[in-house]
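Hi V.,

Quick status before I head out on leave. The structure for the redesign project is tokenized and pasted below; the design run finished overnight.
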């Protein structure tokens, strides 16, 4: 086994343990009164907001399952909608326990149920990720614009103007040098970054040239609209966050998206990240919000995804 594979395997084992440790650490550092207060706050939550949030999450899964066919059909495959949906939920189920395993098991699942070659199914999953990354970057840019006043105020109050100007000049110079290196360097690491960027461009071009590109783009936007809606309605479960405007919600959503990638399904990291970002904007209750959103979505993915995995294992033994 190569060093790269050893490293990848080690990370898949270590990162879930990091998530478990962070959960334990966060709970253990709380006093008994703090844990009691958090539990009371969770118990008094209006369940209607949790149900709506879960429904938004379900709609995003259904849309993702339907969107998948637009990538598979040009390859000559027409998976059943039920198979696509189960494969996606199996992927989320797997990601809860082993980081980045969900994409692989999703490809394995659709291969078992609809006889689609794994390598072709996996290739379409990578293409999906490119589309999702583009939308996430758009959401991030929107959040920065909406919160520009708060960011400028923060840097004005906390940053040295001369230091900021120097940092800006260094950043621009670094960007220019970096672009030149990307274009001309033959170093293996630089080439990988360049190939990744070119791959993103190729992915965008392939989506735009797709036969049903309009439907694909619609479902991509719908999926992310559901993600934001799932996040938005959950704010009403925590009084200290209920009044947060769209800009704060989008900024917190972006931070949460990155937190989800830090460990397996954001275990341990997500509530901490939510507590930090909402506190930055002056809102209390971010940790409770994080536990509620992460906890309810994780339970849904584990229960429904686990059932889907059993169905595939029992009825598709090929």
């Amino acid at each position: 086994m190569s060093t790269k594979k050893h490293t990848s395997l080690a990370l898949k084992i270590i990162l879930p343990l990091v998530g478990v440790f962070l959960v334990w650490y966060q709970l253990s550092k709380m006093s008994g009164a703090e844990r009691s207060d958090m539990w009371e706050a969770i118990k008094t939550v209006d369940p209607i907001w949790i149900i709506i949030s879960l429904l938004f999450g379900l709609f995003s899964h259904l849309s993702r399952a339907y969107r998948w066919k637009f990538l598979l059909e040009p390859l000559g495959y027409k998976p059943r909608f039920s198979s696509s949906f189960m494969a996606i939920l199996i992927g989320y189920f797997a990601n809860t326990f082993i980081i980045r395993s969900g994409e692989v098991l999703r490809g394995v699942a659709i291969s078992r149920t609809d006889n689609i070659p794994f390598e072709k199914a996996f290739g379409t999953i990578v293409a999906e990720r490119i589309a999702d990354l583009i939308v996430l970057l758009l959401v991030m840019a929107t959040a920065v614009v909406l919160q520009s006043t708060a960011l400028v105020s923060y840097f004005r109050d906390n940053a040295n103007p001369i230091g900021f100007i120097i940092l800006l000049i260094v950043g621009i110079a670094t960007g220019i040098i970096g672009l030149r290196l990307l274009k001309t360097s033959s170093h293996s690491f630089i080439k990988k970054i360049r190939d990744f960027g070119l791959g993103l461009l190729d992915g965008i071009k392939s989506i735009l040239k797709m036969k049903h590109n309009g439907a694909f783009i619609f479902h991509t936007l719908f999926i992310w609209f559901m993600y934001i809606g799932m996040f938005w309605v959950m704010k009403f479960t925590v009084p200290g966050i209920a009044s947060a405007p769209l800009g704060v919600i989008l900024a917190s959503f972006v931070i949460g998206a990155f937190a989800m990638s830090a460990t397996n399904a954001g275990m341990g990291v997500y509530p901490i990240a939510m507590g930090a970002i909402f506190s930055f904007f002056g809102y209390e209750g971010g940790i409770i919000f994080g536990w509620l959103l992460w906890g309810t979505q994780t339970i849904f993915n584990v229960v429904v995804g686990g059932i889907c995995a059993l169905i595939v294992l029992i009825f598709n033994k090929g």
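Above is the designed sequence. Confidence is low (pLDDT under 50) at residues 1-11.

G. will cover questions while I'm gone.

Best,
W.
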